[in-house]
Amino acid sequence: MNASVSSDIAIGNGGEEGNSQSAALHLQSGLAMQSRDSTSAAAGELVPLFSRIRVVLSHTSHPGNIGAAARAMKTMGLSRLVLVNPRSFPDAQADAMAAGATDVLSNARVVESLSAALAGTTLAIALTARRRELAAPPMWVKDAATELVTHAGEIALVFGNETSGLSNEELTLCGRWAMIPVDAEFSSLNVAAAVQIVSYEVRQAAVDPGLPPAVSGAGALASHDDVERLLAHFEQAALGSGFLDPASPKRLMLRLRRMFGRAVLEREEVAILRGLLAALENPRR
């Protein structure tokens, strides 16, 4: 099978060449790995955090990569897998490559869009190698993991298609994006290998996160759905007021999305902004 190499994926696209890498991992099923937290209460303490993390694979073309990603997740204690419109799933090759992590596949959720996969999340981190215009500021994956373990809400780690990665539209749905530092001369990394690296970094950060004290008076974080409704309200108000010309929208909504992604809004803040918009739309006489 021919290799499929994409310049986009230093973190998630390995295409068909991923099969040989995944197969190599599969053949090492007897490899013994030392768990540094297996002799303490740390493993149990990770469950509340890990139960809030979902790994999202968008438009995965090869079922073997889904299985290998499930195996990578389970070795680091992650279990929630969401698949956005995969080409073939369920599939026997996915089961074979899971190598004992078929429970992750059995419990995987299949959805039609990334927006559906992100429903209920308050932090979505996209893994991509390409700098995109108007995207949120990038992070190295190690720093992203450190930020993630201090987050109180539902979290999504989002990986793109093997050959084309995440689309610009998909990336705009994620408030943050991260990169795996790879060699510039050969940056193509199989999606399952990327999931393994990110899952490892999350586990290492969680074992010894050095949690900061909670912010006094902080409210519940706004969910992905809350922010999407806020953006829709802003667009409606901007169109109604004439501030936004539908014939020439430029990039107003993209800039607002980017701004709100950086802000990490709370639900009460979303309510304030929507209340203000409603008041402006229907001023009292």
Question: Explain this structure to me?
Answer:
This protein is α/β, with parallel strands linked by helices and about 280 residues long. It has two domains: about 15-25 and about 45-205, SPOUT methyltransferase, trefoil knot domain (Alpha/beta knot); about 225-280, Helicase, Ruva Protein, domain 3, CATH 1.10.8.590. It contains 13 helices and seven strands. The protein has helices at about 20-25, 40-45, 45-50, 65-75, 90-100, 100-105, 115, 140-150, 170, 190-205, 225-240, 250-265, 265-280; strands at about 55-60, 80-85, 110, 125, 140, 155-160, 175-180. It is globular, with a radius of gyration of 20 Å.
The class by helix and strand makeup works out as alpha/beta
CATH topology of the largest domain: Alpha/beta knot
For the record, the count of structural domains works out to 2
Proportion in β-strands: 5-15%
CA gyration radius, whole angstroms: 20 Å
Q: CATH superfamily of the largest domain, please?
A: SPOUT methyltransferase, trefoil knot domain
Instruction: Kindly report the average pLDDT value.
Output: 83
Give helix % range: 40-55%
**Strand order across the largest sheet:** 3-2-1-6-4-7-5
Count of individual helical segments: 13
